[in-house]
Amino acid sequence: MNTQSDNDEPLISLFAKGKKVEGLSFDYTMTSKDLVMSGKMWIEGEKVKTESTVVSIIDGSTSYTYYPDENKR
Q1: Residue 69 has pLDDT above 90, yes or no
Q2: Long-range contacts of the stretch 20-24 (C-beta < 8 A, 24+)
Q3: 16-25 as b/e, with b when 16 or more CB fall inside 10 Å?
Q4: SS3 of 11, please?
Q5: Contacts of residue 68, Cβ cutoff 8 Å, sequence gap at least 6
Q6: Which of 9, 10, 32, 50 is the most exposed place for a label (fewest CB within 10 A)?
Q7: d(CA 8, CA 35)
Q8: Cα three-residue angle 23-51-62, rounded to 5 degrees
Q9: H or E element in which residue 13 lies
Q10: What share of the chain is helix, strand, coil (3-state, %, to 5)?
Q11: What is the pLDDT of residue 2?
Q12: CB contact set of 32 (below 8 Å; sequence gap of 6+)
């Protein structure tokens, strides 16, 4: 198991710093072979909020979900 980060700071030290963080937010981009999705995420304590664009159409027992970011290239 590698216990050193790329800059030779022990991982235990990095984890200790993370425990002191009360909250954070960031923009993200997830990519895979044919998909790119982006959004924002907020984390505070045990609460997590994520935001991205999704279009849902519900017609009785049928639903359609569309992610506009999937079609950006």
Answers
A1: no
A2: none
A3: eeeeeeeeee
A4: helix
A5: 53, 55
A6: 32
A7: 34
A8: 140
A9: helix 11-19
A10: 20, 50, 35
A11: 52
A12: none
* Residues in Cβ contact with 29 at an 8 Å cutoff, skipping those fewer than 6 apart: 36, 37, 38
Contact 16, 28 (CB under 8 A): no
CB 12 within 8 A of CB 3: yes
| 11-68: pLDDT as tens digits | 788 778 777 778 889 998 888 777 677 889 998 888 999 898 878 888 889 998 888 7
With a threshold of 0.85, does the pTM exceed it?
no
